[in-house]
Design a protein that fits this description.
Elements (H helix, E strand, L loop, with lengths): L7 E3 L11 E3 L3 E3 L8 H10 L3 E2 L3 E3 H5 L3 H6 L10 E5 L3 H13 L5 E6 L4 H4 L11 H16 L5 E6 L1 E3 L2 E2 L1 H11 L4 E4 L13 H11 L6 E4 L5 H11 L3 E4 L9 H9 L10 H19 L2 H16 L6 H7 L5 H9 L8 H4 L38
Parallel strand pairs: 3-4, 3-13, 5-6, 6-7, 7-8, 8-11, 11-12, 12-13
Antiparallel strand pairs: 1-2, 9-10
Helix pairs in contact: 1-11, 4-6, 6-7, 7-8, 9-10, 11-12, 11-14
The structure holds flavin mononucleotide (FMN).
Length: 388
């Protein structure tokens, strides 16, 4: 028996009236995914269902240096509200300046801080999922962020992993520290950095964090392996989390947000669009990308990576499939789509895992990183980061 969930209340400023509260009818958040969750993809997901849709991550340093690409990434889609920006930061001063820009220039309604990136080029410098281990640096970044954003009525949330590896879990201590410093929620991807995307996310960690943060009243959002509406409901029932964060499950399936909303309302039937219905969404995605990039060529290059996800499990002749992988204009996309034959959704694929499935590996860390969690580490470089 599924019980209707409580709405997720977020004290999200709307940019005009500080401390306004946005009540999300459905406790569903699109996970930030670098290279995926640009405003075109967010609009597509928004058109399919309710929730909060978080931007691609940008680095605090690139923001203060006003890199044109970064400024474009944080530009919201038409009518997009609340405007939710994910920041990657390794330095309290830099993140403070970046948030000053977002607040003073009214560029965001919600800021999420990324402490979950597991990729070697990031952890090797002590960033991403390696950072919460240095508890003083972590709390300085979160504390400065919350304080600076509060001047503009902007809530700050954090997203983290369970820890570095099975011997070095950081989520309970870092989650509590962030909660005490005033974040609006803590989202937990229930894997360690060492696990990358391997195996199943361990939802019992989410339950542990819910229990640990209960005295603070700060909500926990669960993340990892939600492939269906029923998974979202099950995660909330099993862990007691206040909401769910959905990543790979919506790749090629933006209607997953509608399925989650339906499941939270007690309806469990998954959406199974025919190929002709899917092709409408594919074309819409292409159009939105052209608006976003203001370049048909760039838009189509971006769209190519989504094609295999949209077509997964459908019977499509090899040469047409290959054509989608090289599509270079909306006209060509339309022509390729017109060659598809309608067919029902391949049910066995509907809720199957998709997207990154990288195997775990030892986490690269700076020399001596694990020697002293109290050391106030200095990490100077925070660019060339690509999410995770
Ligand atoms: C392609 C890709 C890019 C990602 N980029 C980011 C990112 O920029 N920031 C972040 O916090 N997490 C990022 N992640 C992690 C997701 O937000 C999410 O935590 C992870 O995929 C687990 O959720 P899932 O099982 O629903 O996919 C990324 C994941 C993928 C697959």
């Amino acid at each position: 028996m599924i019980t209707k969930t409580a709405p997720l209340r977020l004290p999200i400023a709307n940019g005009q009236f500080a401390n306004d509260e946005v009540v999300l009818d459905s406790p569903v958040v699109l996970a930030p995914m670098a290279g995926i969750t640009n405003s075109a993809f967010r609009t597509l997901c928004r058109e399919q269902g309710a929730g909060l849709f978080v931007s691609e991550m940008v680095t605090a340093r690139a923001l203060i240096e006003r890199h044109p690409e970064t400024m474009r990434l944080i530009t919201p889609g038409v009518g997009e509200t609340p405007r939710s920006v994910q920041l990657y930061a390794v330095d309290p001063t830099v993140v403070g300046k970046a948030i000053e820009i977002l607040g003073a220039e009214n560029l965001a309604d919600h800021i999420d801080l990324n402490f979950g990136c597991p990729v070697p080029k990031v952890t090797r410098r002590g960033g991403g999922a390696a950072l919460p281990y240095k508890r003083n640096l972590f709390s300085a970044i979160v504390g400065t962020s919350v304080k600076t954003a509060a001047q503009y009525g902007i809530p700050v949330t954090v997203k983290m992993r369970v820890g570095i590896n099975s011997d070095h879990h950081t989520y309970l201590e870092a989650g509590k520290s962030a909660a005490d410093l005033g974040v609006a929620w803590v989202a937990l991807h229930a894997r360690t950095a060492e696990q990358m995307y391997e195996g199943q996310a361990d939802w019992s960690r989410i339950a542990n964090l819910v229990e640990h943060l209960a005295p603070t009243g700060v909500p926990v959002l669960g993340n990892g392996d939600i492939w269906s509406g029923a998974d979202g409901v099950r995660m909330m029932q099993e862990t007691g989390c206040a909401g769910v964060v959905v990543g790979r499950g919506c790749l090629g399936r933006p209607w997953l947000f509608a399925d989650l909303v339906a499941a939270f309302n007690g309806e469990e039937t998954p959406t199974l669009p025919s190929l002709f219905e899917v092709r409408k969404i594919m074309y819409r995605h292409g159009e939105l990308l052209v608006e976003f990039f203001e370049s048909e060529g760039r838009a189509m290059r971006d769209l190519r990576k989504h094609m295999a996800w949209y077509l997964k499990g459908f019977s499509v002749p090899r040469e047409i499939r290959a054509g989608f992988g090289m599509v270079s204009s909306l006209g060509e996309l339309d022509h390729l789509l017109s060659q598809l034959e309608d067919q029902p959704y391949p049910i066995e694929i509907a809720e199957a895992p998709r997207g990154r499935r990288s195997h775990g590996r030892a986490v690269s860390l700076p020399d001596g990183w694990l020697n002293d969690p109290d050391e106030f580490a200095t990490i100077t470089i925070d660019d060339s980061v690509s999410g995770g």
